[in-house]
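Possible regression after last week's pipeline update?

I re-ran a chain I had predicted before the update to compare outputs. Posting the input and the new output here so someone can diff against the archived version. Not blocking, just want to make sure nothing changed silently.
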Amino acid sequence: MIIAGGGVAGLALGLTLHQIGVPFIVLEAVAELKPLGVGINIQPNAVRELMELGITAEQLESVGVSVREWALVGQQGQDIYAEARGTQAGYHWPQYAMHRGKFQMLLAQVLLDRAAKGAIRLGARVTGYAKSAQGVTTQITHNDGTTSTLDGTLLIGADGIHSNIRAQMHPDQPPIHWGGAIMWRGTTRAKPVRTGSSFVGLGTHRQRMVIYPISPVGEDGLAQINWIAEITVDDPEARKNIGWFRQVGISDFAHHFYDWRYDWLDVPALLAGADVAYENPMIDRDPVDTWVDGPVALMGDAAHAMYPTGSNGASQAVIDAREIGAAFVAQGVTAEALGAYDTKLCARVSELILRNRGLGPFGLLTMVNDRCGGTFTRIDDVISPQERADFMGKYKSAAGFAMETLNAAPPLIPQGTLAKL
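New output (post-update):
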């Protein structure tokens, strides 16, 4: 089997295939894997699957920190909603906040330690495919400009939001969607707020900060704090001037948050303490009606690139890998198994894409704005505790990490089971 892409999705699938006895190769475009990226959250449903793969809590804690709280705070600094997360909330598994690149490197190292030599082939970009009687022929461009092909039974496109495999599968897909939000991302060595391991969304539906630690607190009382500063603009032409992970100066955007100072957080100081900041548009792709074309399937961002508002992009990539593996165990390494994976996840995750486009759990900020213009003395006078809890419960259910359901669910892949080759 051929996996196009050595990011979180492709590596999680490689680990799953190794576990269930399916030969594979991962083709990755870059010449060298490096710990690139910023902070991500791995939800308990995905942590469960990582642990089913034999990745330990100690390994995950080496690249991140267990999250204790998720909180939404208005621009005046008053709580809108807060809840415990992970084991603090009663889940059987933690939620982790971590550096995406370090997490990817952990997955890669575990895979290389377990799988045959050459399981990951670097400098090989998958540019297309051709179906055949035997399965699929994958077209590859190498870093030196040469091209080659590789035959396999199945091809899995884990090649990200700019997926060549998706572009061939859906040649009439609309361009990447941008809804007007601009993000600046970075990290700062600072003191964690609230519980010391809280995920905090602060601000309004059009201007907000997301703040959470991605490392343990050191002897100096400080941790590496991941932050996202975000504004929404109404001019579609502004997209032309927004970079993709373009390095920018803090002064280029900090003025939007100049007065965001509270007794528990000084946002201007947090931004000023960063070594570097990167600018990005908040983008996603419109859902498609299928992720499968016979012996070819999409997963991860190639299948369902979504706004990073629900902290479940990387988590869903892990779930994709495990669902593909479960389908192989049940139906063999076949196109029919890919069809079963598609039937189970495509429509449901497509709804999640649209939920996240509507700001996902941050949609509570829109509700507050609609009812009181974002200014309030008591949040209970604006939205009742039950209504807030119901809103969050529906999102967690849609994203696949409703606690009672998850805690009671049997393993996706029972230990020791192998695929039917």
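Follow-up from reviewer: compared with the archived run. The chain has twelve helices and 22 strands. Marking as no regression found.
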